[in-house]
Design brief:
The chain has a domain at 168-253: Tetratricopeptide repeat domain (Serine Threonine Protein Phosphatase 5, Tetratricopeptide repeat). It contains 13 helices and no strands. It has helices at residues 25-43, 47-60, 65-77, 81-94, 99-112, 115-128, 133-145, 149-162, 167-179, 183-196, 201-213, 217-230, 235-252. α1 runs parallel beside α3 and α3 (65-77) runs parallel beside α5. The longest helix has 19 residues, at 25-43. The radius of gyration is 22 Å and the shape is elongated. The two termini are 28 Å apart.
């Protein structure tokens, strides 16, 4: 199955959820200062500088979970997957209720190909914070990749219940409905994508194909025309797909 876009949120600025040492209040503030400085550098793309600041933060207060989490994000961006997982694991060890650390470790495990580990981490993140749409979305992506289509639909549905403005989630769910042959539900989802983002090129393509499969050629053509206005370079791919669907319709007669 074609791998879907994986939506990643790098939550560099986190609340101080770690278990702090009450006897080192001044040090704790300094650790937070370094963490904040590292966060700013990471946002500017200075990952080496960010990691250096997070190292200072951890040296001052080895029990400061946000510094480990944020260093893990920077390491992940640099491609140090094992180092990132180690940092997220340390953040979880310090603060077992840190849903974001579980989520970040899940994303990183997924990148590494440890899909069962990723699912376990997403499950834990959702258990701790069931109101975060991104947790459900990324678990849904993994489930879709593993061909657990009903599980993916359930996760995408929960994600848009929490945040109804996530156009890409409706698009993914629409693609599953289309693959399952539920074209009405697919079209409803593509309608929602276009309502949220009228420039969503792929939604016009996908809705047009679903309409064509229903025999609604005129409606489909309107979507194809809009698709080509937004992305004229993809006309050969569109023509190929239209021909494929029309052959399918002939066979089904």
């Amino acid at each position: 199955m074609k791998r879907l876009f994986l939506y990643t949120i790098f939550l560099f600025i986190l609340p101080s959820l770690a278990c702090q040492n009450p006897f080192s209040r001044q040090n704790s503030r300094s650790a937070e200062d370094y963490k904040n400085s590292g966060t700013a550098k990471a946002k500017q793309g200075d990952l080496d500088g960010a990691i250096a600041d997070f190292n200072e933060s951890i040296e001052i207060n080895p029990s400061y979970a946000p510094a480990y989490n944020n260093r893990g994000l920077a390491r992940k961006e640099k491609g140090d997957i094992d180092g990132a997982i180690a940092d997220f694991s340390k953040a979880i060890e310090i603060d077992p209720r840190n849903a974001v650390a579980y989520y970040n470790r899940g994303l990183t495990r997924q990148d590494k190909g440890d899909f069962e580990g990723a699912i376990t981490d997403y499950n834990k993140a959702i258990e701790i914070d069931p109101g975060e749409a991104d947790f459900y979305y990324n678990r849904g992506v993994l489930r879709q990749d593993k061909n657990d289509l009903d599980g993916a639909i359930a996760d995408y549905s929960r994600a848009v219940e929490i945040n109804p403005r996530l156009a890409f989630v409706y698009n993914n769910r629409g693609n599953i409905w289309k693959d399952k042959g539920n074209l009405d539900s697919a079209i409803n989802d593509y309608n929602k994508v276009i309502e949220i983002d009228p420039q969503a090129t792929k939604a016009y393509f996908n809705r047009g194909i679903a309409l064509l499969r229903q025999g609604k050629d005129a409606e489909a053509q309107r979507d194809f025309d809009q698709f080509l206005i937004l992305d004229p370079s993809n006309k050969p791919a569109l023509d190929k797909k239209i021909a494929e669907v029309k052959r399918e319709r002939v066979v089904q007669r």
